[in-house]
Design brief:
The protein is α/β, with parallel strands linked by helices. The chain has helices at about 40-50, 65-80, 90-105, 130, 155-160, 180-185, 190, and strands spanning about 1-5, 10-15, 25, 50-55, 85-90, 115, 120-125, 125-130, 140-145, 165-170.
Length: about 190
């Protein structure tokens, strides 16, 4: 059962399985390229985890900076309602999930875990996943397609691997066409 909620002043989200104790906040891909809470890979994560899942839409596009604030607002909203909250993001959202996890870790409030699927390496000044990874103080998992030419997910994966995180590759491009479950499955142990 899904419930539609307003996680922030301008955010809209869908909370799947709202009665579960734990929650995964799912960050969509680039909103100017059709990324939204209804993305099939976000839905696949929601179906795969044994937690509630907050899939949300970003507010007005701001090149990554405003979307980072939106991600942190969605995380705060979920924390007010659930015991343990993890972050997940795909592509643009993967970068945001990692950067938000680093910022929350530096503030002494790390998420329970963070998982990123084909994360972009950098979106804007101060929104750099590769630079953020060393500051993330929770379990980290990354999955990327070995034929991904859309983003530099390999650079993020290298940083995650270097700092003790879990990295998996899938024989796919950036969009994981026909491989949704194979792309998401390696992240489930990290996200719980």
């Amino acid at each position: 059962m899904a419930a539609t909620r307003r996680p922030g002043s301008h955010l809209r989200g869908t909370l799947d399985d709202p009665d579960r104790a734990d929650c995964v906040v799912a960050c969509p891909p680039h909103p100017e390229h059709g990324g939204s809470r209804s993305n099939p890979l976000l839905r696949a994560v929601s179906d795969a985890v044994d937690s509630a899942c907050l899939r949300f839409d970003y507010g007005p596009f701001d090149g990554g900076r405003g979307e980072l604030r939106d991600t942190r607002a969605a995380l705060a909203w979920a924390r007010d309602r659930h015991e343990d909250v993890s972050l997940f993001g795909y592509s643009f959202g993967g970068c945001l999930a990692l950067v938000a996890a680093a910022k929350e870790s530096r503030a002494g409030r790390p998420p329970a875990a963070v998982g990123a699927l084909a994360p972009a390496a950098r979106l804007a000044d101060g929104v750099d996943a590769v630079a953020a990874v060393p500051d993330v103080d929770c379990p980290v998992g990354v999955v990327h397609g070995e034929r991904d030419t859309t983003v530099d997910a390999a650079a993020v994966a290298d940083s995650v691997r270097e700092h003790g995180g879990r990295v998996e590759t899938v024989a796919a491009d950036h969009f994981f066409v026909g491989q949704r479950d194979a792309a998401v499955a390696p992240l489930v142990p990290t996200l719980r």
